[in-house]
Amino acid sequence: MSDIKRSLTLSLAYLLDHFPAVAVLGARQIGKTTLLSQLRPNAPFFDLESPSDLGKLEDDPEFLLAQYTDTVVIDEAQSLPSLFPVLRVLIDKRRSRTGQFLLSGSSSPLLIDNITETLAGRVAIVELGGFSLQEAWQLTNSPFYDWVMGGNYNALPDLVPRTSQDQLWQSCIRGQYPEPFLKRKDTKFHTLWMENYFATYVRRDISMLFPGLNLNAYQRFIRMLAHSTGTIINASEFARSLSVSQPTVRFYLEIIAGTFLWRNLESYQKNVRRRVSKMPKGHLKGSGLLCHLLGIRNTESLLSHPGVGRIWEAFIIEELIKEFEARLIKVSAYYYRTHNQAEIDLILEGEFGTLPIEIKLGGKIDRRQIATLKNFISEQNLPIGLVINNAEHIEWLAPKIVQVPATFL
């Protein structure tokens, strides 16, 4: 796994040169520790899930950490919440120094609050997702994202395929946790790894964070979410099925989002001329875990699954967001649905502006399928919209609407 170059590497090096502290957040087993070790291979390293390292920093952390003049790496920092005020004091004593601390964290909905409230203005926060297509297949930087940032629409014909269709299916089914993906040919290992990961997440991480939580209900909740990926989440329906209250369902959603396994997509409501749905929708971030929970083990079972369109949509949404954020391009993700059920799968907002995107599993587009996209582009006065699908060629489908096959991303 150490040979795989992560897209965030250069961006993290830049942040360490400009901020006193950098925090890398993400789900368990996503590759944070490996990435930190690659960035600072010779740095003092404290793993706060190690009792000995935790004990060292519990006793007198200010004195201990003040001894180091180079970057100090602190892995799984959420294990010691009292550490953050100490880091603030140390940073302020040496405020002109950048790259003082490199932190990682996972499995704590309170972690971001601890970091942002205590280290505000002193820390850069990034999320490490699972393997992107670029990372999984060790590709060079994709020009697609440069095109979006530069608005150079005339350069689209110059793009070429970067992955094969089979590689896309493998990434969707086996991705994006590094260890099982790298051993993806061993189907038995992949299944056992996912089963253990899911059990450990619920029985260890969640039980430690929330001792009074009904773990059986929460586990059933996650499986229900897997089947509901890509749909609007109705808390009342979940509550009835789980025999819990609606506030409990909303609390479960906060937990799974806070532990980096779930992405909430809010409804896009800015300057819209039509009545729109305001309920959130979302998806499991890791398509490999999603496919495992749905019993999908190969391409044939994926393509025959009734939810394949929503699985594919979630996979592409995460691919886009991961690659933008690896370039330190912060994006906000929304969906759009009118009360007449007209829908756009994804709307991204960032320094490039507003980009509406339809995501389709097939390779052919009926012009009626892009009617909502055309109307939205016109109403919002946008320069372009995308259709990402499994076609073979880049093609203009209409003025301001271009088809980009997923193999070109």
Short description:
The protein has 409 residues and is an alpha/beta fold. 43% of the residues lie in helices and 16% in strands.
Describe this structure in words.
The chain is of the alpha/beta class and 409 residues long. The protein folds into 2 domains: 119 residues, Rossmann fold (3-Layer(aba) Sandwich); 276 residues, no CATH class. The protein contains 18 helices and 13 strands. The chain has an 8-stranded mixed β-sheet, sandwiched between helices. Strand 8 and strand 9 form a beta hairpin. The chain is globular. 39% of the residues are buried.
Keywords:
single chain, 409 residues, alpha/beta, Rossmann fold, 2 domains, 8-stranded mixed beta sheet, 5-stranded parallel beta sheet, 18 helices, 43% helix, 16% strand, globular
Number of domains: 2
Distance between the termini: 23 Å
The number of helices is: 18
Strand order in the sheet with the most strands:
7-6-8-9-10-11-13-12
Overall geometry? globular
Poorly predicted spans: none
The number of distinct β-strands equals: 13
Rounded Rg: 22 Å
Strand content: 15-25%
Main sheet properties: 8 strands, mixed
